[in-house]
């Protein structure tokens, strides 16, 4: 025993060096082999090599996707087979109703989303919580067989409790209910609403509570940022709005946060339900029965519009929204409007936006004047010169913070949903968006964005250069960390 102790004391530096080589080398190889983004691979390999013991620990905690893409995809492929009983759905042919460039965009969507573009949908724009929450409550109160609700933030406040009480009334009528809340988002209010839901016997679950396999903790990345409500498989709601009182004028007053949500009726509601059912099965292992959760008929109130859901997340759809936006910016012929609370596109998307502007396309980018995330605002400011120099017009709104995520192309194509234009949304979060073809919806969204522009200040290169050096340096340093904000 003494001999072993003596040998350890003499050779521990060598053992530590060998351990650091083995651990650091293994972590560096893993990063190089699994990271598809060369900048991420270089960054993690650099962190590991600069600190061969601490670096691998940091990489283990923050850099490894423990819910492997193939594992998620396998579970969701099995879920899709469970919902193969859907009726023959009305496929949309945009080549007969839209300009030629949108036909190629439709083909891109076919290959990116694995959902068909469906005709006959009716989409109603809901502005803020003042319109969205009453419509959601009315749908819940009218539910006859099922309610599926998925959200990132569900606060235990006046608005959250109204929805809980409506769910209780539905449960007492015999309606089947499933509620899925992100584990990170559930912590935005204290106490979390999940306790009230369980107390009132509403079936609910938290998304991604135990990704490391042995620690009961939500993971900083891999969040479910999706917002879905489907009632009776026939009425759907989606968009960018969480459930919290800050979106309601009666509660927040002059500080009300803006946002945009959408009520959907038509066959695209089935796609919303498929996404929810797959996430629910992934989280709880429960398969939701087709007869209870899916509808096959919808109100006949005119021809409707083509629409489809676009999934994105750290699985086989990891760059779904990224690819759709690249395609949309490439086919634009006249005007691109972008409204985003967090505008931090990567260099590839920046290149697509800037190329569109250089082609002579009018590009309007609307961002909040007051942002709820200060660090994100600093990073955004550091990057704005890159789009302004290419001819894009950037507008900072003077009103309250607006959480809407809206894009239109040429007054015909719209892209709405939960995705922000930042690295977290584009690569790390599970997001859900919807592409919509039609002049009416695009025109309405364009009017909303133009109204924001009318109450905005143009950001100029001169104004950016006038920012004191210490603040520009601060913004630039924070911008370097933008993939992790």
UniProtKB/TrEMBL annotation:
<feature type="domain" description="PLD phosphodiesterase">
    <location>
        <begin position="220"/>
        <end position="247"/>
    </location>
</feature>
<keyword id="KW-0812">Transmembrane</keyword>
<keyword id="KW-1003">Cell membrane</keyword>
<keyword id="KW-0472">Membrane</keyword>
<dbReference type="InterPro" id="IPR027379">
    <property type="entry name" value="CLS_N"/>
</dbReference>
<feature type="transmembrane region" description="Helical">
    <location>
        <begin position="41"/>
        <end position="62"/>
    </location>
</feature>
<dbReference type="GO" id="GO:0008808">
    <property type="term" value="F:cardiolipin synthase activity"/>
</dbReference>
<protein>
    <submittedName>
        <fullName>Cardiolipin synthase</fullName>
    </submittedName>
</protein>
<keyword id="KW-1133">Transmembrane helix</keyword>
<dbReference type="Pfam" id="PF13091">
    <property type="entry name" value="PLDc_2"/>
</dbReference>
<dbReference type="GO" id="GO:0005886">
    <property type="term" value="C:plasma membrane"/>
</dbReference>
<dbReference type="InterPro" id="IPR001736">
    <property type="entry name" value="PLipase_D/transphosphatidylase"/>
</dbReference>
<dbReference type="InterPro" id="IPR025202">
    <property type="entry name" value="PLD-like_dom"/>
</dbReference>
<dbReference type="Pfam" id="PF13396">
    <property type="entry name" value="PLDc_N"/>
</dbReference>
<feature type="domain" description="PLD phosphodiesterase">
    <location>
        <begin position="398"/>
        <end position="425"/>
    </location>
</feature>
<dbReference type="GO" id="GO:0032049">
    <property type="term" value="P:cardiolipin biosynthetic process"/>
</dbReference>
């Amino acid at each position: 025993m003494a001999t072993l102790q003596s040998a350890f004391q003499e050779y521990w530096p060598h053992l530590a060096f060998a351990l650091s080589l083995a651990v650091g080398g293994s972590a560096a190889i893993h990063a190089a082999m699994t990271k598809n983004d060369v900048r991420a691979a270089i960054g993690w390999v650099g962190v590991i090599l600069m600190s061969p013991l601490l670096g691998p620990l940091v990489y283990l905690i923050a850099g490894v996707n423990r819910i492997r893409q193939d594992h998620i995809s396998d579970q969701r492929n099995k879920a899709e087979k469970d919902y193969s009983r859907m009726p023959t759905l009305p496929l949309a042919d945009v080549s007969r109703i839209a300009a030629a460039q949108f036909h190629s965009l439709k083909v891109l969507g076919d290959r990116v989303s694995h959902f068909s573009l469906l005709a006959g949908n009716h989409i109603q724009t809901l502005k803020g919580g003042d319109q969205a929450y009453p419509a959601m409550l009315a749908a819940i109160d009218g539910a006859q067989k099922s309610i599926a609700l998925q959200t990132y933030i569900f606060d235990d406040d006046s608005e959250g409790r109204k929805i809980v009480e409506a769910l209780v009334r539905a449960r007492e009528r015999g309606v089947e209910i499933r509620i899925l809340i992100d584990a990170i988002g559930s912590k935005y209010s204290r106490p979390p609403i999940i306790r009230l839901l369980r107390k009132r016997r509403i079936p609910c679950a938290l998304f991604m509570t135990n990704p490391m396999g042995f620690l009961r903790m939500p993971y900083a990345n891999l969040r479910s940022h999706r917002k879905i409500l489907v009632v009776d498989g026939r009425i759907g709601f989606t968009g960018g709005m969480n459930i919290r009182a800050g979106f309601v004028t009666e509660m927040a007053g002059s500080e009300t946060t803006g946002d945009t949500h959408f009520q959907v009726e038509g066959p695209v509601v089935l796609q919303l339900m498929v996404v929810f059912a797959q996430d629910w099965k992934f989280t709880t292992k429960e398969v939701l029965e087709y007869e209870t959760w899916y509808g096959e008929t919808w109100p006949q109130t005119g021809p409707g519009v083509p629409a489809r859901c676009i999934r994105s997340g750290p699985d086989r759809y990891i760059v779904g929204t990224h690819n759709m936006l690249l395609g949309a910016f490439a086919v634009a012929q006249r005007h691109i409007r972008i409204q985003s609370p967090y505008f931090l596109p990567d260099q590839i998307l920046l290149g697509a936006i800037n190329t569109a502007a250089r082609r002579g396309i009018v590009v309007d980018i609307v961002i909040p004047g007051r942002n709820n995330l200060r660090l994100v605002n600093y990073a955004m400011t550091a990057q704005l010169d890159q789009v302004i120099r290419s001819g894009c017009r950037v507008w900072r709104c003077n009103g309250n913070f607006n959480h809407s995520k809206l894009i239109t192309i040429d007054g015909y194509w719209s892209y709405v949903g939960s995705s922000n234009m930042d690295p977290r949304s584009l690569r790390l979060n599970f997001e859900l968006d919807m592409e919509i073809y039609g002049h009416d919806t695009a025109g309405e969204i364009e009017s909303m964005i133009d109204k924001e522009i009318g109450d905005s200040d143009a950001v100029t290169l001169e104004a950016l250069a006038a920012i004191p050096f210490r603040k520009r340096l601060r913004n630039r340093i924070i911008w370097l960390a933008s993939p992790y904000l």
